[in-house]
Amino acid sequence: GDFHSDYARIKLADPLTPIQTLIPKDICIGTNAILNTSFSGDNIAYSWNDGSTSPAISTSLTGTYMVTISGLCNTTVLGPVEVRYIPNTEIKLQPTSVEVCTGQTASLNVSASGANLSYLWSNGATDISINTTIAGFYTVTVSGTCQSIVSNQST
Is the separation of the CB atoms in 152 and 95 below 8 Å? Predict the structure, then answer.
């Protein structure tokens, strides 16, 4: 007799193709960075250097991250990519009250640290210091990437 075998199938698998790659993340203290990547291909597996196995991870820890993406046809490594803290906005030196004679100019200033700082005084000025001949109570709001802080009141 004749003997016929079952048929064998050959399937062509797609190689890994990046859809989204990793980018560095700067995060505020107390927040999380989401690192994600996306690939198309067959039988994709993700392996991050922190032990995670999903396409995306969320972390509040700074450091260097890498991910190995394995597919049926090939393997690729993304990274290293850095997660860094952005310094919180902090007023280092508050405006201090001053007393000047009528008609003289009083100067108020603030010293602050943080990232991308901007200043808004209660009189509408937007510089790090103000000069005024008008008596009153003054505050300054210091805004940065991570937060805004209102100074103590000066007179």
Answer: yes
- How far apart CA 51 and CA 90 sit, in angstroms, is 35
What is the rounded distance in angstroms from the CA atom of residue 86 to the CA atom of residue 23? 16
Q: By 3-state DSSP, what share of the chain in percent is helix, strand and coil, each rounded to 5?
A: 0, 45, 55
Which H, E and C letters describe 82-135, residue by residue?
EEEEECCCEEEECCCCCCCCCCCCEEEECEEECCCCEEEECCCCCCCEEEECCC
| pLDDT tens for each residue of 88-103 | 999 999 999 999 999 8
pTM above 0.85, yes or no: no
CA distance 143 to 65: 30
